[in-house]
Amino acid sequence: MAAAVTTTALSKRYGPRLAVDAVDLELPAGVVSGFVGPNGAGKTTTIQLLLGLCRPTSGTAEVLGRPISDPASYLGRVGALIEAPSFYPTLSGRRNLEVLTRLGRIDRGRIAEVLAMVELSDRANDFVRAYSLGMKQRLGVAAALLPNPELCILDEPTNGLDPAGIREMRAVIRGLADRGISVFVSSHLLAEIEAVCDHLVMIDNGRIVFQGAVEGLIDAQQTDIVATPEHASDAQTLAELCIAAERPARVEGGDVHVQAPEDWAPELNRRAMAAGITLRGLTIRRASLEQAFFAITEGSKSEREG
Amino acid sequence: MFGAFSSEWIKIRRRAMLLWGLGGGLFFAVLATIFTIERAVRTFNPFVERHGIRVTFAVLEAPDGLVHGVVDVSTLIGIVALCLFAGAFATEYSQGTLRNLLVREPRRVQLLCGKFLALASFIALAVVLEILVSCAVAFLLAPGRGITTSAWTSSAGLNDLLEATLHVIVASVGYGLLGAAIGVLLRSPGVAIGAAVAYVVPVEAIVVGAIWSNGDRWLPGQLLSALAHGGTTDSSYHHTLITLAVYVLLIAAATLMVFRRRDA
User: Which of A11, A109, B36, B76 is least surrounded by CB atoms within 10 angstroms?
Assistant: First the structure.
């Protein structure tokens, strides 16, 4: 599959601070790619570089096969929501979109379509200053969708949205991917990214610490098998059995948490039975994206400090 | 560039822009016309001179008397343009809307020029309207004071009216260019407007009054004021035009360079 975005050793320095540090990125086309990292990790700067809003200090990048040194050659096929949505407060939502359609020579008919997509049609004629943050966010997504883009770059699109709005935004993003649009969505809310993305890029301190399939990342993390003996007094014995089998284990409450791959669960069951321990429960606890993120960033921090 | 021009006009049509951009100039133009006619004297004498009155009936009854008041306050009309341009450019930065604009029009020269031309066209229309209204006011008030208006409608009068209109438009757009440059440079509307007004009003006046008496031949604000008057005794029309053309080239080139190269 062709890449929607590729970067090679892309860096951006602001004074003494390296905001983006030799980033090599490859985002597959036609899927939703998540971009996660803590605040100040370099997400927005990377997005601004891809949109030609700032110049890289070094390195190169291509968006939809065109170099970022020539943003006019690809931005007509790109939609973007950058950081907090910024609009003219004393113009209506519709007029704000009209400013962009005229500027980008986009068919005005798209305004009604995108307003309907983000469910803002009934408030489209109100001044933007009367909009809630969530409505401004939705208007920002509408603005990004105006050119009917091949690539949609959304920077923190769920900021300020209520739970229902977040769910709708997820549906909008999935809908874009279903229509074959590549989506690059940044967020510091990992659960959001996990819910909506196929591909994931993790950034920390300006450096990419992971990129690949979301499933692959979670699978690569250590799973816990949680065994619950019928009698809580057997928990310590069971933990010792696991440790003897070179599987780290600890007792928490009446449960035994064993660090082992998923397919070791039957073996754990057999060993418990052999020791005369009856299990009341046996569950697999897979790492969440959040745990995976912290495991990776802690690892990279140790490497830097080491 | 037409996209940038046409999208800027949507913003120009906002109530606040019309109120300050058009209303401000209109206020000064009408007020100046009323004061000029109402305070004019039949003959000049030391008493009226002491009271700051400089206009006689004879001056107002000349072909260019119709726009005497407007031309006198052309600097104030120019300052309205200066603030409008400085605010319009700086607000795009401070509000964060510049990024949206650059995503839809990444060719920065076209974006800047389109936006500038749209604002310039608005200022030109505003000046025409201001002059038309002030002319109407002059025609209404003059007979009541016994000022003869026949020369105003002569061919020489119409010619002077057109010339004055053109000069005030060009001078106002010149002030606008200065405002645009300061807006792009400072990126904060409050700071940009404050700095622009401070430069044109007190700073240049202090420089000319206390430091460099010949400065009124060379400083941009002084030259723009001279242009609106069609040249002055200190700065001839041609000298004013040529020097301002050099300023326009330098300021426009510097503004374009900063706008193109700086991160949004």
Answer: A109
Cβ pair A82:B15 closer than 8 A: no
pLDDT tens digits along B159-218 = 999 999 999 999 999 999 999 999 999 999 999 999 999 998 889 889 988 888 888 889
Q: Which of A71, A78, A91 sits opposite B10 (nearest CB)?
A: A91
Tokens encoding A142: 């509408």
Indicate which of B104, B105, B260 best probes the interface with A, i.e. most A CBs within 10 Å of its own CB: B104
Residue A90 makes CB contacts below 8 A (sequence gap 6+) with: A127, A128, A129, B14, B15, B16
Beta bridge partners of A227: A256, A282
CA distance B244 to B228: 12
Query: What one-character-per-residue DSSP string does A90-114 give?
Result: TSBHHHHHHHHHHHTT--THHHHHH
As beta bridge partners, residue B145 has none
Q: What is the pTM of this model?
A: 0.84
The sheet that has A182-187: what strands, in order across it?
A: A78-81, A151-155, A182-187, A32-36, A199-204, A207-213
What confidence tens digit (pLDDT) does each residue in B49-74 have? 666 557 888 888 888 888 888 888 88
The SS3 assignment for B236 reads coil
Read off the pLDDT of residues A113-138 as tens digits, 9 standing for 90 and up: 999 988 899 999 999 999 988 889 88
Task: Find the chain B residues whose C-beta atoms sit closer than 8 A to any C-beta of A.
Answer: 3-4, 6-7, 10-11, 14-16, 95-97, 99-107, 111, 261, 263-264
A87, B97: Cβ pair inside 8 Å?
yes
Q: CA of A56: which chain B residue's CA is closest?
A: B263
pLDDT above 80: residue A221 = no
Q: Which residues of B25-53 are buried (b: 16+ CB within 10 A; e: fewer)?
A: bbebbbebbbebbeebbeeeeeebeeeeb
Per the CB < 8 A criterion, the answer to whether B47 and B161 are in contact is no
Interchain pair B103, A82: CB under 8 A: yes
| Integer Cα distance of A295 and A231 in angstroms | 33
Sign of the dihedral through C-alpha A46, A51, A55, A58? positive
Hey, which bits of chain A come out as E strands? 3-14, 17-28, 32-36, 58-63, 66-67, 78-81, 151-155, 182-187, 199-204, 207-213, 224-229, 249-252, 255-259, 279-285
> What's the average model confidence in pLDDT over A7-14?
95
Q: Which amino acid is at A268?
A: L
Residue type, B203: V
Q: How near does any CA of chain A get to the CA of B9, in Å?
A: 9
